[in-house]
Amino acid sequence: MKSKHSGTDLRLRKASLNDLSLLRHWDKQPHVIACDPNDDWQWETELVRDPYWREQLIAELDGRPIGFLQIIDPALEDSHYWGDVPANLRAIDIWIGEEADLGKGYGTAMMQAALERCFKKKAITGILIDPLESNLRAHRFYERLGFRFVKKRQFGDDLCKVYQLNREEWNRWNKIV
Ligand SMILES: CC(C)(COP(=O)(O)OP(=O)(O)OC[C@H]1O[C@@H](n2cnc3c(N)ncnc32)[C@H](O)[C@@H]1OP(=O)(O)O)[C@@H](O)C(=O)NCCC(=O)NCCS
């Protein structure tokens, strides 16, 4: 996909074990730790597992890996992290790896590519995200993309704000009628 970011090429590709050292390096960056301090993503295990309810994706900008995206079906995800949620939703996790790449519009391009990917499937009605309550910049980022605040919710040790973007709002946002 050509992003709106000054003619650059933003693509999402499947993450693999070849990305292990890069993902571990990104895990050590303070802005990545701050957005998700209590999770161990267990890359060695998860990068070789391919459950039908999940995609793990690397975003590449002009061929350079810049960030990670995970898209799950929250109703089918095997730890039931999201609890009882309706079918036909998706939940997304996103981060940019290097601090120098923040605030340049790359995250917006990544989310737009992820939202298109999710809503391409006609049955999908909405997308969930769960930034930490303290992650004010992420809240602004999601609100600008059209996400609406749903409720505060405790996930394990993390107090989060749940946001949702429904298909109708996404259509309006993208002027699709
Ligand atoms: C959230 C994130 C993906 C947004 O991507 P981005 O490329 O920085 O965002 P964009 O440049 O497209 O948009 C900039 C907006 O993102 C928001 N933003 C969120 N986190 C930011 C950060 N650490 N630095 C700069 N902007 C950030 C701001 O609202 C900013 O808008 P503003 O200029 O009005 O303040 C990215 O900042 C990031 O990876 N942050 C750390 C990890 C994280 O918080 N992930 C979300 C967990 S739910």
UniProtKB/TrEMBL annotation:
One of its GO terms (molecular function) is N-acyltransferase activity. Residues 10-166 form the N-acetyltransferase domain. It comes from the Bacteria. SUPFAM superfamilies: Acyl-CoA N-acyltransferases (Nat). The keyword Transmembrane helix does not apply. Keywords: Antibiotic resistance, Transferase. The keyword Transferase applies. GO terms for biological process: response to antibiotic. This is Aminoglycoside 6'-N-acetyltransferase. It comes from Anseongella ginsenosidimutans.
